[in-house]
Design a protein that fits this description.
- The chain is α/β, with parallel strands linked by helices.
- The protein has one domain: Decaprenyl diphosphate synthase-like (Undecaprenyl pyrophosphate synthetase).
- The protein is built from ten helices and six strands, in the order H-E-H-H-E-H-H-H-E-H-E-H-H-E-E-H.
- A six-stranded parallel β-sheet has the order 3-4-2-1-5-6, sandwiched between helices.
- Strand 3, helix 7 and strand 4 form a beta-alpha-beta unit.
- Helix 2 packs across helix 3, helix 3 runs parallel beside helix 5 and helix 5 runs parallel beside helix 7.
- The protein is globular.
- The two termini are 34 Å apart.
């Protein structure tokens, strides 16, 4: 009934996900954080298919933040990167990715990752480079402030080299220098886990996004939760700052 209700209304073109609650969900069951990340990975694979089925064109997933890299234990980070590598290679070989036309792009600072992780990223990006109309962005080693700093440095270099004047700098100039250049700003940002903040995610791109916070931990996220998010989106009147 809920699906029949929402399919008649407008759908978001672009959705971003903050996959929060893997660790707390696992802890509540007496398991390790690694168990939570494994469960969250399985949920993500299901959820991506739900988004494609609904006609969402672009999905951005917050997989690993710059803060996580500095604050989580080395063993947990290693496990997340191993899972990510596994995911990239599965996407590169996935029949669904090519049938649905999903281009995969990793955003963030991957310079400090192992050659194995970098190789998996290169493989999935190259193999899916010509897929359309869907885009899957995976934020790995990502921080919104870091992204903006890098964009400012790029622009400063262009001004220094005489390619730009300060008067030439516009919103489009900045957007074109971000990791997400060429992608749409998210219509919705969904955060699970009960927290209500962006946590340094898509700070520039989220200016006019609808923010939807869910109490459910990410491994518990169900298709009906997504349908409820879409219904909430459809009931909101987007004013874009007006």
């Amino acid at each position: 009934m809920l699906y029949e209700e929402i399919k008649k209304g407008s759908k978001p073109n672009s959705v971003a996900l903050i996959l929060d609650g893997n660790r707390r969900w696992a802890s509540s069951l007496g398991f390790s954080p690694e168990y939570g990340h494994e469960a969250g990975y399985k949920t993500l694979k299901d959820a991506l298919n739900w988004f494609w089925e609904l006609g969402v064109k672009e999905v951005t997933v917050y997989a690993l933040s710059t803060e996580n890299l500095n604050k989580r234990s080395p063993d947990e980070i290693s496990h997340i990167l191993t899972l990510s590598t596994k995911g990239f290679l599965e996407l590169a070989d996935s029949k669904d990715v090519y049938e649905k036309g999903v281009r995969v792009k990793v955003i963030g600072d991957i310079s400090k990752f192992s050659d194995q992780v970098k190789s998996a990223i290169k493989t999935v990006e190259e193999r899916t480079a010509h897929n359309s109309p869907h885009l899957l962005q995976i934020a790995l080693g990502y921080g919104g402030r870091d992204e903006i700093i890098r964009a400012v440095r790029t622009i400063a270099e262009k001004v220094k080299e005489g390619e730009l004047t300060p008067e030439d700098i516009s919103e489009d100039t900045i957007s074109s220098c971000l990791y997400t250049a060429g992608a749409s700003d998210p219509d919705i940002i969904i955060r699970t886990g009960g927290e209500e903040r962006l946590s340094n995610f898509l700070l520039w791109q989220s200016s006019y996004s609808e923010l939807i916070f869910l109490d459910v931990y990410w491994p518990q996220f169900r298709k009906i939760d997504l349908y409820r998010v879409i219904r909430t989106f459809q009931t909101r009147k987007r004013r874009f700052g007006a």
